Amino acid sequence: MIKMENVFKRYQNGVTALNGVSIHIEKGEFVYIVGPSGAGKSTFIKLIYREVKPTTGLVEINGVNTSELKEREVPFFRRRIGVVFQDFKLLPKLTVYENIAFALEVIEESPRNIRKRVMEVLELVDLKSKARFLPNELSGGEQQRVSIARAIVNRPDIVIADEPTGNLDPDTSWDIMSVFEDINERGTTIIMATHSKEIVNKMKKRVIAIESGMIVRDESRGEYGYEN
User: Fold this and answer.
1) What's this protein's family per the entry (predicted)?
2) Could you read off the pLDDT of 89-103 as tens digits, one per residue?
3) I need a surface site. Which of 134, 153, 188, 201 has the fewest CB within 10 A?
4) Which residues of the chain have pLDDT under 50?
C-alpha cells in the first residue's frame, strides 16, 4: 500500500530531511514513526499524502507514483487518505456535525449520504450527543475525536496521525488510542508519528525509527527506544 524506494528529500534551504529511505507498509498495518525532533518524521508523513514530493526516489501510495500526479489530481488522490493533526484544525464557527460533513460536501456527496456517514462516525467516536456543539464547547479530547471522525468519514484506506495525543493528558490519550485501534481493526492502515514512549511501548505495533533522515530501526512489535 505504501512504498518508498531510495527516497531523498532536500529542501531549498539545503536541509536534507530524508536520506535514502526505503520502506514497504502493507494494507491494514498499524505503524508508529518515532525518532528525535528534526529526524525527518514529518517529511516522511508529508510524502505519503503528497504535501511534498521526493527530490529523488519513488513514493508510491496505492499504486500511484506521487511524483507523477498533476496538481489538479492531488485533491482526488487525498480522498483515500485521512489526516489527523496535533492541533485538531477544526473550523471554529462550524458545529461538530458541520466540521465532519464538510469533508463530504467538498466532494459533492449527496445530503442523504452525508447525514448517514456523519452519524456513523459520530457514533464510532462516541460524540453523537455533541453533534450540535461548537469546537470551543468541547474538551481537547473531544476535539481530537471530531478530528478523527472527519478524517475517516470518507472511508479512507490510510489514516495518518501526526502527534495526535501531543496536547492531551494521559487518560485522554489512551481514549484516543482506543479509537485509532478500533479504526485499524476495521481494516484501515494507520501511520502515526509520536513522541509518546508509554503508548508505543504498551501497544506493541510496528515501529519505524528515523534518525538524521535515515531509517535506523524497523521492528514488527517494537518499542519507542528513546528517552523523553
Assistant:
1) Belongs to the ABC transporter superfamily.
2) 999 999 999 999 999
3) 201
4) none
